[in-house]
Write a structure and sequence with these properties.
Shape of chain A: globular
Strand content of chain B: over 45%
Structural class of chain A: mainly beta
Number of strands of chain A: 11
Number of helices of chain A: 0
Distance between the termini of chain A: 40 Å
Shape of chain B: globular
Number of strands of chain B: 10
Radius of gyration of chain A: 14 Å
Order of helices and strands of chain B: EEEEEEEEEE
Oligomer: heterodimer
Distance between the termini of chain B: 36 Å
Structural class of chain B: mainly beta
Number of helices of chain B: 0
Largest interface: A-B, 24 and 27 residues
Largest sheet of chain B: 6 strands, mixed
Strand content of chain A: over 45%
Strand order of the largest sheet of chain B: 2-10-9-4-5-6
Helix content of chain A: under 10%
Largest sheet of chain A: 7 strands, mixed
Order of helices and strands of chain A: EEEEEEEEEEE
């Protein structure tokens, strides 16, 4: 069964740091492009960033609100995706989802999602 | 960045109704448009990719159309399990891969 399971969420003070993990199973993680998407309470979906597979360069891209503060990485030996979040702000409070980016004829879409992990930034 | 605007933001409809949700891009995105369904407390679910390709396992009452800047998601005959929030997402120009603000479909 294809599965993504996020962990690492919690309560953190403004300015603090947190690292989220996403454990993947049931598919070839090392060949997968992966992304993080977040959803603030009562709000819509917001793309956070993505990481390509190492065979495609392993490069990362980020949304403007998190660039320079968040870092996406991967450990293919552990089938795990990470999101290191530094200098957290109250507006980073959200449910964070990891997802597998799939492609068909250069059309990229997110078919498999985790259940999400909640990050609350508050003093 | 490409902006995605959905309309309406909310919609009330009855079981059996035909419903159409619109998504407009701020510039042409060809057919690089995906649709997702999200129920409260759950992760999004992919319905449609590449504007009109139905994801495996998604009921055929869901369909997508459009190209360029204007796209639609149509549900031909609403079922009770279809009441949810729907999002479009462009994958033409990334980063960032932007979502629409969502359309909440409620029971009338």
């Amino acid at each position: 069964e294809v599965q993504l399971v996020e962990s690492g969420g919690g309560l953190v003070k403004p300015g603090g740091s947190l690292r989220l993990s996403c454990a993947a199973s049931g598919f070839s993680f090392s060949n997968a492009w992966m992304s993080w998407v977040r959803q603030a309470p009562g709000r819509g979906l917001e793309w956070v960033g993505r990481i390509k597979s190492k065979t495609d360069g392993g490069t990362t891209d980020y949304a403007a609100p998190v660039k320079g503060r968040f870092t996406i990485s991967r450990d293919d030996s552990k089938n795990t995706l990470y999101l290191q979040m530094n200098s957290l702000k109250t507006e980073d409070t959200a449910v964070y989802y990891c997802s597998w980016i799939e492609a068909a004829d250069y059309h990229y879409y997110m078919d498999v999602w985790g259940k999400g992990t909640t990050v609350t930034v508050s003093s | 960045d490409i902006q995605m605007t959905q309309s309406p933001s909310s919609l009330s409809a009855s079981v059996g109704d035909r419903v159409t949700i619109t998504c407009r891009a701020s510039q042409s995105i060809s057919r690089y448009l995906n649709w997702y369904q999200q129920k409260p407390g759950k992760a999004p679910k992919l319905l449609i990719y590449a504007a009109s390709s139905l994801q495996s396992g998604v009921p055929s009452r869901f369909s997508g159309s459009g190209s360029g800047t204007d796209f639609t998601l149509t549900i031909s005959s609403l079922q009770p399990e279809d009441f949810a929030t729907y999002y479009c997402q462009q994958s033409y120009s990334t980063p960032p891969s932007t979502f629409g603000q969502g359309t909440k479909l409620e029971i009338k």
